[in-house]
Amino acid sequence: MDVPAPGGSAPVISLRGAHAVLGARPVLRGIDLTVGRGEVVALLGANGSGKSTAVRAAIGRVPLTSGELELFGTPLRRFRDWRRVGYVPQRSTAAAGVPATVREVVSSGRLARHRLRPLGRTDRAAVQRALELVGMAGRAKDSVSALSGGQHQRVLIARALAGEPELLIMDEPLAGVDLASQHVLADALRDQVASGASVLLVLHELGPLAPLIDRSVVLRDGRVERVARPEQLHDPACHPHDSEVVHPASAVPRIETGQLS
Ligand SMILES: Nc1ncnc2c1ncn2[C@@H]1O[C@H](COP(=O)(O)OP(=O)(O)OP(=O)(O)O)[C@@H](O)[C@H]1O
What we know:
The protein is α/β, with parallel strands linked by helices. The protein has helices at about 50-60, 100-105, 110-115, 120-135, 150-160, 180-195, 255; strands spanning about 15-20, 25-35, 40-45, 65-70, 75, 85-90, 165-170, 200, 215-220, 225-230.
């Protein structure tokens, strides 16, 4: 049985009893993860605990050996509306070395919306807005290969924002990003959330994003170890397992809907 999200609408992500195997290794071992509409959920845990695999499973990029996944209330096998989802993978330099400008890379975030049609005025405005949100508008004409790692990360985030997704998934968006830029990203995210977006973030430290986070889900060895409010994780970067336990998510699914009280 699925758990209703706050407000009664279907959760944007509903992953239930997810198991996944990579190579011969069981990496997800029965994960429940629900993100309700308008919620900001942080996925925490030690290296190798399965965070990246869980978010990739949550968008169907890692097949489940058992378990269920629904996006916006639709089972994955029937879900087609990918323009509602923006995904920023774990830091990659995939676009580096490509002879593309910052604006071109960010514009590619509109692909799912405009397909092969040329960018229209609305598309261009969304691209410009995304560039401004991450503080990269001044570098729009530069080649991405001329950017630092942190700037590159901001461009990839802008690419996801340009698609105006209802669900934004970011895998370690703060990795290698200086504190000033982390605040820029926090402001960009706050803006998205204010306009109704739901967000799933993989993080090692909450940093300036802490005030935005409704719920933290801590993974350990491919399982949900606990679900907590951010303030209950006094130092998630160093001691993700020392914090106060609220409830195991699997035992108390109500918490997974963000109804911590
Ligand atoms: N392609 C793969 N083949 C086999 N094992 C894999 C593969 N990708 C990841 N794994 C293993 O799955 C486990 C979980 O990896 P995952 O990247 O999901 O962890 P993580 O929590 O995101 O870690 P980190 O904090 O280091 O990014 C690790 O033990 C990893 O070695």
